[in-house]
Amino acid sequence: ISTSPFGRFQVILLLLAFVQSVLVVGWCFTEMEAGPGAAMSTQTNGDRFKIEGRAIVPGVKTQDWVSTARVLVDGEEHVGFLRTDGSFAVNDVPSGSYVVEVVTPTYRFEAVRVDITSKGKMRYARLVNYIKTSEVIRQPYPLQIRSSGPHSYFMKRETWGWTDFLMNPMVMMMVLPLLIIVLLPKVVNTNDPEMRKEMEQSMNMLNPNPELPDVSELMTKLFSGSKGSSKAGSSSKGTRPAAKRR
Amino acid sequence: MAELILLWLKCIILYNAVDAVFEDQVGKFDWRQQYVGKVRFSHFDTHVQSSKKVIVATENNVFAALNTRTGELFWRHVDKSGPEGNIDALLHHGQDAILVVGNGRLLRSWDVNVGGLNWEIVLDSGSFQKACLVGQQGTVKHVAVLKKNIISLHYLSNGHQKWIENLPDSETVDYQTVYSGGNGEVYALGIVPHSHIVIIAYSTDDGEIIKQISVEAPWLSNIVASCAVIGQGVLICVDSATPSLYMYNLNPNMDDLQMTQIPLQSLGLEVAPDFQPVLVSHQPNSAHQPLSEFFLQLGPDNFLLLQFNNGQIVTLRDFKPALLVSFATTGEKTIAAVMSPKNKTACSINLFSAETGRRLLDTTLIFVMDPNGGKPEKIYIQPFLKKDDSVGYRAMVQTEDHTLTFIQQPGRVMWIREEALSDVVTMEMVDLPLTGTQAELEGEFGKKADGLMSMVFKRLSSQLILLQAWISHLWKLFYDARKPRSQVKNEVTIENLSRDEFNLQKMMVMVTASGKLFGIDSKTGSILWRHYLNDVPSNAAFKLMVQRTTAHFPHPPQCTLLIKDKDTGLTTLHVFNPIFGKKSHVTPPALPQPILQSLLLPLMDQDYAKVLLLVDDQYKVSAFPSTKNVLQQLQEMASSIFFYLVDSSQGRLSGYRLRTDLSTEQIWEVVIPMEIQRIVSVKGKRPNEHVHSQGRVMGDRSVLYKYLNPNLLAVVTESTDTHQERSFVGIILIDGVTGRIIHEAVQRKARGPVHIVHSENWVVYEYWSTKSRRNEFSVIELYEGMELYNSTVFSSLDRPHAPQVLQQSYIFPSAISTMEATLTEKGITSRHLLIGLPSGGILSLPKMFLDPRRPEIVSEQSREENLIPYAPELMIRTEWFINYNQSISRVRGIHTSPSGLESTCLVVAYGLDIYQTRVYPSKQFDVLKDDYDYMLISSVLLALFFATMISKRLAEVKLLNRAWR
């Protein structure tokens, strides 16, 4: 019976799919949200300064969200409010380094660090980095704080459906080989020599270089070689019976 | 890379293990109430006839619009707390509201409809005096702001300054008010007390001084308190000494140097002794002159409606007794509303025509005063014209206890807002009492056995009672199901309050800064009782203690509120029933001496009330209740009663021991040098906290025992030097019995405010790192080691080994407002920290992330222990917000309370708002989840059942066939 190459192929495919999914997850986590910063303007007022900017929620009218929004500078140290066009100004801020956040219960905004120097009027905005505090990623000037979408507060309920159950990799891994083992010998007449030839051809297509030996076969040879003709080690347990059967 | 992926995977798994809110649970177990605080200014939005808004500015620096139909908020803006966000003035014109904020620092204009800011400008420095709208030719385009030394005029449309002028002689003259009658002039009125008034007329166009004049007024000391402008710009002042009215005509070519005097006697009026008369005038439209009619208050309950007519003053009507008066305008009509006492429990409000003083028909409105509330303080009238051109109105009454009541004719209360709840100081959650049936059942187990037969009968009878209750419950369900859903009401009242199956519903007893106490049902948030204590000093500190719970059935539960005047230290006790809010008939002891410390002992008197010990400034101890039984118990126990005192002004911590004669002796003292650092807070453990496991199982199967000292105190100090290079935060762990310093930790280059949670064997605190300019968390955990010294009982006096101390710090990406740890019945459930953020969210952070044993390098053992690899930054995930988008402004405190279910902890967050919810730190492991899929499990069971039946049948057939073959 020549079911084993198909079964193995299936397993490898599944493995590949699994690795890919892991990579996707990893990629999701490495993707940092690149948020723009706040626009600054310099206007002195004694030794007190002003932090100005503009917040934008793409696709939403400002009237719908400005009444619930606030601008917090270093927690609640200084508070600013948003104008009806989304712009804001936090007045009366002494020189120093501040974290400026736009806070609304519905939309998410990135925090921005703003530095106001004590003598010069130079000030700049940068992304907040609490770990490398000296690192400066300048925000283009002038710029606006753009919302990166609504807050996600809720967990998804685990709903149960037939598709979820069937698409589960474990179930697929169990069911598909089972189907193949049970159904293939019935569908394909393996005693037919033409069919056998066709199958061999398709196997060759999968294996682009016929000179290159099959990995599993190589492994079997390697392990069985090292231990002589004695029983195979535990590591080759899985592949050995298949090779033997062939 | 592979390790990273593993780490990520692990993180994902861990994050998924953390519980969060599901979308369908919104509002199911939680509720929020939003408040604004005590109203300082209020205006009805009148520019649209159908407007339902009333705008309020409050003493909590909140500016909001309320719905007059429901009392709910349209929008609310919460400014910085403290004097910098203080709202000095509110002017209202059309759909703009002008606010002067922070002692005249900022001028803001708000759009009342949207709730958005139109503009905000910074004003020149100077202490704010008064602001007014300035109209010209019938339209209002400017706002004038008067400060101590300058006057400025700003455009209403964009806030730009039109002109600014220095006030002449501002060092000697105290400029107090500004007035504009819509004629193109702005008058600044100043005073040199007991000498003369200075009147300056400015031109609205360019700020030029048109006229400046000094008018003699040696009897006057304050313009704001005793003067008003009426009619065609007549300044009218009242002098209580003479007693008489003085008048002066404000116009561009004024040249009189004297005020016209009209003795009150000539009008036939008399001032109540020792009363400073008050004038109330009304300017319906800033572009026009004020009314010629005004109120004169001559006594605490005596008002007069007077009219100024051609230089003469006419009395239109005398109101006596009258409590409050108010003017209001709708269309062209101006009315005067007068509130007068009707009887002991009710007041009536009547409307009078302002021009004639005639009473308007059908305008009586009855305001029923809450016997547990305060007296009325202010009334705001919203008049409207009915179809037949008569005047109808609604009234908003503000009482001493900060309550707003909105009433409609003839006395229907539309809504009540308990604004005292915006300032909750402390709270407790009290179990609800058992119902009669429940108590009967409990009684069966409580009593001693008295014979087999009687026990059997008792059991049978209690089962019968249960059956009866169940049947009546079923009947009620059936009966309710037939009725339409809208009619079925499950209103909670004091009468039908009873404990639920899992003790999830409790009574929240809340103490507010105004001295009003509330009893709130934790399930629905409805206020079940309220009680106003009217003799509470304004700077009082409160401590609420539950002396007797509801568990001792015939005895009512008992709470004691300790009210201490912070200045004098004098203390009063208020003893009440927490379920009904009624004052207890138990008389609390009179306390003539200032009280330093109070302790609630686990001792109980014969009526199951816990004993409260009060230590006065002579270090004498008094007990409440102080029956013979209690005193005897105290004498026996005295040698094991210790207490500590903190004197933060001298940096001294001292420990005392009780003697049998109820005097005390000092046994230890720790002095923290005041020159270097000061004590910020001292935190012990919560007395009702349970710790389930005494140790932690390590990766190698050995046990690391926790150092569980119930007497441990965490003392937080801050350096007096605030320079960012030299400032530090210190944590000292002291044993409260022996005074032994267990551990000391110092965080250099750090400053407060420090938030601290002390529980089990750990202390978590948060501070500001001045070096890295970020908030940091630090956790200290104490362990006894691999062996327990005395596993049966902990004694502070017998602990020879110092505990092992582990500490780790983390970065937290936000400032925090307050912090508390979850608490459950038996302490089996894992702990979470509940962190109130300035953004209004309450973050539930697993304590697992704050574990000093988090390894930097992952090993097999740490993986076995489920330790998360160390990462410097803690994350804030919005999925961990227990209050999703129901943000809570200015969270000041979080109260956690265990429920009857081990998995569930009840949480109340209070600040400007109140939010109640339940949290499940380890998920709901002891009950079926609310999304439990009954359908799935039953269908699977059925399917399996049928599958076995069928396969059994098939197998039989097969066997039979084989046998035949």
From TrEMBL, chain A:
Residues 61-173 form the ER membrane protein complex subunit 7 beta-sandwich domain. It is a single-pass membrane protein. It comes from the Eukaryota. Residues 206-246 are annotated as: Disordered. It is found in: Membrane. Residues 224-238 have a biased composition (Low complexity). Keywords: Membrane, Signal, Transmembrane, Transmembrane helix. InterPro entries: Beta_sandwich_EMC7, Carb-bd-like_fold, EMC7. GO terms for molecular function: carbohydrate binding. The chain crosses the membrane at residues 12-30, 165-184. GO terms for cellular component: EMC complex. PANTHER family: ER MEMBRANE PROTEIN COMPLEX SUBUNIT 7 (PTHR13605). Belongs to the EMC7 family. Component of the ER membrane protein complex (EMC). This is Endoplasmic reticulum membrane protein complex subunit 7.
